[in-house]
Amino acid sequence: MTTPHNPPHTLAQKLIARAAGRPHVDVGEIVNCQVDLAMFHDSSGPRRLKPMLEELGATIWDKSRIVLVMDHYVPEQDDESRRIVRIARDWAREQNLPHVYDSIGICHVVLPQKGHIRPGLFCVGGDSHSPTGGAFGTYMFGIGATEMLGVVVTGQLWVRVPQTLRMVWNNQLPAGLTAKDMMLHMIGRFGMNGGQYQAVEFCGAAVQALSMQERMTMSNMSAEMGAQVGLIAPDETTRAWLAERGVAVNDLSDWCTDPGATTVDQVFDAATLSPQVAAPHSPANTRGVESFAEVAVQVAYIGACTGAKLDDLRAAARVLRGHTVASGMRLMVAPASQHDQEQAELEGVMGVLRDAGAEVLPTACGACSGYGGSIPDGANVIATTARNFKGRMGSATAQVYLASPYTVAASALRGRITDPREMLQ
Amino acid sequence: MNGQMAIAAAQHRVWKFGDDIDTDVLAPGAYMKLGIDGIAPHCLEAVRPEFAAQVGPGDVLVAGVNFGIGSSREQAADALVYLGVRAVIAPSYSGLYFRNAFNLGLLLLTCARAGELADGETVTLDLRALTVTSAAGVSLPCEPIPEFLLDMVAAGGLLNQLRQRMGASR
């Protein structure tokens, strides 16, 4: 893996070249890639794939490379969701799928926890937040159900080799700031299609200092930047995290952008970033928290693959410890996975959240995508989720603000949007 | 490719929308449990309630930048196919939506000057020259589309292509 690339390659080019079985690939060319792993969930997967596969009389190209996660319509709340989840369970049994994770958490969080994501792989997911895998140096992106059918039948997928937009974050984030703030800031600056479906690569000292779960938050929200993938070069943090989950990785030194490779760079100073909030109804509608001091909120939602992993729960607990939410305030917490929730229980984090008045919801996608949970009509909501499109959380009249878990927790205590730094001593 | 000549001559009524039309507006989450026949009647209702009931076969959508941003749900493209929409004409698309649309047989034309077209006017499309011509006869150029994607649209989407391929190999 140490052969020099000529010409110098970006990390994205190297990942695609490997998947295409080519020594090198040029930006802009369309190549066919061999897919290492295809993930889908109860909403995008079996209910749509099964009838198409049956109609074609086709079979799955390689079952060992398929992962099915039930996370969108669980726990089932009505006949329709029961039917959708039943299709997924029956099909998994019929097909004898080896990797099925039912109601244990959100796919993008479960996938790496179960050791399926490794540096160097080329993966697709039937969900737009699939770029989360990029945090591990995996070329992973979302596709729709019909395209997934093509992958499931052939094991292959076309891709146009992207340019690389490098987001270089110098210095270190101050206390009370997170990867979520960095992402909201970038989305606000470049817009929801600023990534132009190219590869974004996050780098610099502030990114290198992030934990794996914080890196996952960055790559996850590359979707809101309109990038195809959001990559972070794997390093010793990646290796240590994977080793804890029983995944051994080899030499990582080649999974990086070569010096001299062509990139478009944007430079940021992490040290001067303030907590960021996206106002309704777009993640690009972002300003510093100080612009929202007069905004009252009635619901605080800590959930989603973006904002309810263990590190997110810990951040919220740091603010909430020893306090209770403002009167009339509803704080909902839907941990991103059972594993994260169990660890948070052991650390006392869940206890802090409950003592503060949090309602703990199932470890599923829930209210983030309007699939479950109840956001009251007309409410002002502050959420750790990724999207605040009009009506997305289920109510067309709710006003949804996006922020980090620190900011959401601080706002829950005051009943209005609050700078968490005031609460962290 | 005989269809192209017929398409070139056809008149298409324009339904005009703004910037940042997202997948959750095209295929609202509350109806995602249903089949496409249950989702399509709610397509775009949050921004234009009469759209789904009044759009006719062969009509085209003209939109602003970033059409289709958001989710990977392909029902956001399939709803337009179901309603008979011939093509979307916009200056830019979400990359994920772009892939989904062609996979479902929906033609997306990337046209920097789409904003010059007016709601309710009729336009013609020329897929060989890749132009949209307005009622007043102004010809607007569109960006090139890879041949294999045009073939996919002509076949009615990836599923049809796979059907043909697998039928042929049987």
Structure notes:
The complex is a heterodimer of chains A (425) and B (170). Helix content of chain A is 31%, strand content 18%. Chain A has helices at 11-20, 46-56, 79-95, 107-113, 145-154, 179-190, 205-208, 212-220, 236-244, 304-307, 310-320, 338-346, 349-355, 405-414, and strands spanning 30-34, 37-41, 66-70, 100-102, 122-125, 139-142, 156-160, 164-170, 199-203, 229-231, 264-269, 276-278, 286-288, 299-303, 330-334, 359-360, 380-383, 399-402. In chain A, strand 8, helix 6 and strand 9 form a beta-alpha-beta unit. In chain A, helix 2 (46-56) crosses helix 5 and helix 11 runs parallel beside helix 14 (405-414). The radius of gyration of chain A is 21 Å and the shape is globular. The N and C termini of chain A lie far apart (48 Å). The model of chain A has no long low-confidence stretch (mean pLDDT 96). Chain B has one domain (3-169): Aconitase, domain 4, CATH 3.20.19.10. Chain B is built from eight helices and seven strands, in the order H-E-H-H-H-E-H-E-H-E-E-E-E-H-H. Chain B has helices at residues 3-9, 23-26, 36-39, 51-54, 75-82, 95-103, 147-155, 158-169; strands at residues 12-16, 60-62, 87-90, 107-110, 122-126, 131-133, 139-141. In chain B, strands 4-3-2-1-5-6-7 form a seven-stranded mixed sheet, covered by helices on one side. In chain B, a hairpin with a 5-residue loop joins strand 6 (131-133) and strand 7. Chain B starts with a helix and ends with a helix. The A-B interface holds A 30, 43-44, 52, 55-58, 73, 80-81, 84, 125-128, 130, 141-147, 149-150, 153, 158, 191-193, 196-197, 226, 228, 282, 369-371, 387, 389-392, 394, 396 and B 20, 22, 24-25, 28-30, 32-34, 46, 65-66, 69-74, 77, 92, 94-96, 98-100, 103-104, 146, 148, 157-159, 162-163, 166, 170.
